[in-house]
Write a structure and sequence with these properties.
The protein is mainly α. Helix content is about 85%, strand content about 0%. It has helices at about 10-15, 20-50, 50-65, 70-80. It starts with 7 loop residues before the first helix and ends with a helix.
């Protein structure tokens, strides 16, 4: 499956539409925050366990949740935990 190409007119939309620009920047900030949180968690697990196996287990768990987010969301909704 090929990714669509981004053209100059699509990038100009960020400059032209303030609402889209805010949405774009919020999405970018959210993604950066998620990435930084995962890195911090990896470092914390490494410092507490000194085990690359536990860091790998964290990455695999994160991958599984991202592969099927609907199932993960359903499980947290059912338990009431976040």
């Amino acid at each position: 499956m090929r990714r669509p190409r981004v053209t100059g007119s699509q990038l100009a939309l960020i400059g032209r539409e303030p609402s889209f620009r805010r949405l774009f920047l919020a999405t970018l900030g959210s993604g950066a925050g998620t990435w930084l949180a995962l890195v911090a968690l990896e470092v914390d697990i490494w410092l507490k366990t000194h085990s690359s196996g536990w860091v790998a287990a964290l990455l695999i768990a994160d991958l599984l949740v991202r592969a099927n987010p609907r199932r993960a969301r359903r499980r947290t909704d059912r338990t009431g935990e976040v």
